[in-house]
Amino acid sequence: MTSAAQSPHRIVVVGGGAGGLELATRLGDTLGRKGVAEITLVDRSRTHLWKPLLHEVAAGSMDIDDHELEYLAQARWHHFKYRLGALAGIDRQKKLVKLAPVFDDEGEVIIEARTVPYDTLVVAIGSVSNDFGTPGVAEYCISLDTQADAERFHKRLINNCMRAQAQRGPLQAGQLSVAIVGAGATGVELAAELHRTVRELAAFGLDKIDPARDIQITIIEAAPRILMQLPDRLASSAMDLLRGLNVQVLTNEKVTAVTAEGVKTASGRFVPARQVVWAAGIKGSPILAGLDGLEVTRNHLLVVRSTLQTSRDDDIFAIGDCAACPWPEKDSTVPPRAQAAHQQASTLLKTLKRRLQGRPPLDYRYQDFGSLVSLGEYSTVGSLMGGLHKGTLMLEGFIAGLMYKSLYQMHLVALHGWVKVGLDTLARTITRRTEPHIKLH
């Protein structure tokens, strides 16, 4: 029998997003496979979907079954344990992660509240939308924080179209229109994707609906322009494309309230829309502010040092959108991007291996490789930084589209390896030719 002193080091990763799942998978393939560490992944969901794809789920242009990943299966294949449950707190002295009870759709308890012991804890629960206290957002908006949010928006879109097709009277103002608050990558990508899918949806027998007349897509942005993370020229190019798609773009318009009928702005404008998506900012989950005294920012992000260790506990690390990680070159914090989560997972993988050897942690340094924004089948714009060139390389069109798709492929490779990703991509390419290109239910 193995003594307690010889027990494997217990590494618990809470959050199975881009960074957390990659880290758990790679830890399992190395430390878990060899039995030198016990790896546990905790997540409130049963499946994983790469968050930058959520706008496609919302628009109905992606088959979720082809892209979601079962945590239980991934754990089995890659030598780690999976536990279903939402983070409810931690006990730093006893080194316990507290998990909330799990309920089914009828409200019955599936799993009681419980604890998971750890020697090293990694918090990677991502972020949630920041509504800045705007009245009506919680009641009338959908934020694309999770797969469930995206599916809920899509079902609402389909149901509203079905209702409009069957009703006897004329459409009311904004009945089928969509307002998107926030002109960052999520908002712009969703607008472009919706433009295509609502037209394909109408073509499947919804002859009473004229998308060009009845479905107005509006982006509302408080900043002077869209896509503030991109250079002016690329943002201007994206703006021209959106206008060409008849997407209304309102800049310098701060939203002051959302109602059941639409969106009000500070200038007195009212945008009629029965479907409103909030994509105007992010913050950390409120649960992070109550993690047994760990330091958080005003927006509930865990404060971490360059080693990714939390500022008040060397045994607790944080990565991804939930971490306020220093970016000395910009005198700021690392931006909440998938590339940052991927880089942090890679650094932390090395650090945790060193930790088991009694060696000090590595410093994480963010490398900004730029941003890419997909405008659906119409175009892709973005900028690449560093690498083989000096300065910033601005991309548009086909090449930018290939680079955008490669980001997702890199995530898949980190989870599955090159062979499986290649075969799965080929299979999806073949079957996609025989299926509707939008989700109809």
Structure write-up:
With 441 residues, the protein is an alpha/beta fold. The chain has three domains: 4-127 and 284-356, 3-Layer(bba) Sandwich (FAD/NAD(P)-binding domain), CATH 3.50.50.60; 137-278, FAD/NAD(P)-binding domain (3-Layer(bba) Sandwich); 370-432, no CATH class. A six-stranded mixed beta sheet has the order 5-2-1-11-24-23. The chain is globular.
Strand and helix map with partners:
Blueprint: E1 9-14, H1 18-34, E2 37-43, E3 47-48, H2 54-59, E4 69-70, H3 71-77, E5 81-84, E6 87-91, E7 96-99, E8 102-103, E9 109-111, E10 114-117, E11 120-123, E12 128-129, H4 137-140, E13 141-142, H5 147-166, E14 178-181, H6 185-203, H7 211-214, E15 217-220, H8 232-244, E16 248-250, E17 255-258, E18 262-265, E19 270-272, E20 275-278, E21 282-283, E22 302-303, E23 309-310, E24 313-318, E25 323-324, E26 326-327, E27 332-333, H9 338-356, E28 370-374, E29 380-385, E30 392-396, H10 398-416, H11 418-432
Parallel strand pairs: 1-2, 1-11, 2-5, 11-24, 13-20, 14-15, 14-20, 15-16, 22-25
Antiparallel strand pairs: 3-4, 6-7, 7-10, 8-9, 12-21, 17-18, 18-19, 23-24, 26-27, 28-29, 29-30
Helix pairs in contact: 1-9, 10-11
